[in-house]
Amino acid sequence: MNITLWTLQILLALHTLTGSIWKFTNPAEKAIPSLKAIPHAVWISFSGIEIVLSVCLILPLFNRSLGIFANVAVICIAAEMLFYCIVHLLSGETNHSPIFYWGAVAVICLFIAYGRFVIQPFK
Fold first, then answer.
1. Hey, CA dihedral for 93, 96, 98, 102, is it positive or negative?
2. Is the dihedral of CA 85, 75, 4, 107 positive or negative?
3. Where are the alpha helices (DSSP H) in the chain?
């Protein structure tokens, strides 16, 4: 189980870092039209936070005592994905396919959190 959790954490870190870099170069409305309600400054702030969260996901590789940072990071990423889902639903957009993507990422985050808090905590 530990290998599965580490694999998911590393992939999530790469996914989050890639999304963060993409956010720096693309405005929210270019990403998904329903996200245009998010101010540009907040969009860029999310990008900076995602870089920090990506680093936090892999910190326990170097020092196990920093495992709490990975746990906090997956919860923050899940919360961000759920925030995008809510903004999308409130926008009145009829195409709900982005919600499946954000929901899948949130579920993966919650699986990692459950695994790290309950099944295989960092030691």
1. positive
2. negative
3. 2-25, 28-31, 40-58, 67-90, 97-114
Q: What is the mean pLDDT of the chain?
A: 91
Q: What is the separation of C-alpha 69 from the centre of its chain, rounded to a whole number of angstroms?
A: 14
CA 81/CA 72 separation, integer angstroms: 14
The CA-CA-CA angle for residues 42, 8, 14, to 5°, reads 45
Residue-wise pLDDT for 59-101, tens only, equals 999 998 888 999 999 999 999 999 999 999 998 888 889 999 9
Structure tokens at 94: 């009829």
Among 45, 37, 42, 114, which residue's Cα sits nearest to residue 78? 114
Residue 123 has pLDDT above 70, yes or no: no
